[in-house]
Design brief:
Radius of gyration: 11 Å
Strand content: 35-45%
Shape: globular
Helix content: 25-40%
Number of helices: 2
Number of strands: 4
Largest sheet: 4 strands, antiparallel
């Protein structure tokens, strides 16, 4: 994988990048202004699922995109 993967989601973009921890990736939601929101370190499996699901999302508001991503991270991360 390169430095990062971008998945446009309307008013925001899901950005997945390499993490310093082995087996993990950094996930952020960027708005059009380039600001990152909801940065989190997740497993490769969670990041892959988010990338696939983000391709089908289209949000009118970056906050809604962040809430969706945070919720999906919570759903996909084992307790």
């Amino acid at each position: 994988m390169g430095d990062h993967i971008l998945r446009p989601m309307g008013a925001a973009t899901l950005k997945i990048a390499t993490d310093t921890q082995p087996g993990r990736l950094t996930v952020a939601v960027e708005c059009d202004a380039g600001h990152c929101h909801g940065i989190d370190s997740v497993t490769e499996d969670v990041a892959g699922t988010l990338a696939l699901e983000a391709s089908n999302q289209h949000f009118k508001n970056p906050v809604t995109a962040w809430v969706w991503a945070a919720g999906r991270i919570g759903d996909l991360t084992p307790a």
